Structure formats: structure tokens, C-alpha cells
Amino acid sequence: MGTARNKWKTYTSGAAVVAAVLSTTAFSPNGGTHTVKTPTVACTEANTKLTTTLYPHDSAQHMLLTATNTGNRACTLFRYPLIIFPDRDGWAGPLESAMKDVTIAPGKKAYAGMLLFRVDAPTDAVKSMSVSLQGRVPNEDPDSLPIEVPMPGGFVNIDDNPVVSYWNASKTKAEQYMFKAAGGN
After folding, report:
1. Does the pLDDT value for residue 12 go beyond 80?
2. Span 158-172, mean pLDDT?
3. How far apart are CA 18 and CA 28, in angstroms?
4. What is the rounded distance in angstroms from the CA atom of residue 67 to the CA atom of residue 108?
5. How far apart are CA 1 and CA 3, in angstroms?
6. For residue 28, is pLDDT > 80?
7. What pLDDT does 51 receive?
8. DSSP 39
9. pTM, to two decimals
């Protein structure tokens, strides 16, 4: 009986080692392997500063949201920022853009573009907005507390359906999605 128990312990220990190796190793289609990096922390209000920039050349129809990593290690922004304006129900929806997460190193930035209103749509002036940063799990409570973000010039005009792009490491790409949305939505 003791021998069977020792063999069981050996198999259990071996299985634990195999599981640990498999959890940090990925297999490529050509048969090779590589080590998977440890996931970064999520960007939150504790390690991220948010700022906004308006584009006056188009009647302030577009706004760029910039996230700067203020922490001392890389953090990841998941999907798109959850933006809510006062006296509005629900979050600003996502606009058509590349759906990806963005990891930013300390001191580096990521961008999300916003279409605030459509031409000839009725608008309301808003003096503030809150932004929550999504966590790893979609459709769950955000990983960050709401961050109050100052409005450039003290206010912006929004229609009844402002939209925001997914996070992007490239400011140029975020602007491309943002300006394309005005013609496509």
C-alpha cells in the first residue's frame, strides 16, 4: 500500500510541474516553444493620468483622450475607456476601430479618439466627464475608480451619442479612427 501511495505522490508532483511549465510556455505551429511574459498590471487611477485635447479646426467636434503611465512599471489599457458625461445615462459607445489592448511603459502614452457630436445634430454643453479604465475581463466592473477629466476650455458640446475609439499606442492611428467616424457615423 505504501508503494502505491508513493507512486501517486510522484505522479501528482510530476503533474504539478508539467502544469507549471505549460502555463508559462506557448507552442508555436512549427513545433518550437517560447516563454510567455508575465501579464502587466492594469492601468488604473493610481498609475495613469488622463488629459484631453480638442481639435478646433473642426468646430471642436473631436477630442483626443491621452493616457500617460505615471507608475514605475508597464500597465495595460484594455479595450476602450468607459466615458460618462453628467446627466447622461450609460457610457459613450465604442466607435469602429482596431480592437486591442495597449501596454504602456512608465512615462509613455496611449490614445483614444472621441467623436463628440455629428454635424447638424442638437448638442448640449458639458463641463466634465468621468472615465473608468476597463479591466482584463470584458463586461465586468471597471478596474479603476472613475477619473474626473478636465474639459479643455471648460466645456465641450456633445450630441446624444458620443463615441470613443479603442486605445491605441499611436496618436496618428487614434486620430485616423476619430476623424473617419465623423464621415461614417
Report:
1. no
2. 90
3. 18
4. 8
5. 5
6. no
7. 92
8. P
9. 0.73
The closest alpha carbon to 153, from 174, 181, 125, belongs to 125
Q: Is the pLDDT of residue 14 over 90?
A: no
Domain boundaries, the chain: 2-35, 41-184
75 touches 48 (CB < 8 A)? yes
Residue 37 φ/ψ, nearest 5 degrees: -70, 150
Beta strand 75-77 with 41-42: parallel, antiparallel or unpaired? parallel
| Cβ atoms 99, 134 nearer than 8 A | no
Q: What is the pLDDT of residue 183?
A: 52
Q: Which cell is 165 given?
A: 475609439
Residue 5 pLDDT grade (very low, low, confident, very high; cuts 50, 70, 90): very low
Strands 93-94 and 124-126: unpaired
Percent with pLDDT over 70 in the chain: 73
Cα separations in angstroms, 158 against 13, 44, 113: 60, 26, 14
Cell 517560447, located at residue: 34
| Dist CA 59 CA 25 (whole Å) | 51
- Whats the size of the chain, residue-wise? 185
The burial class, CB within 10 Å (0-12 / 13-18 / 19+), for 9 is: exposed
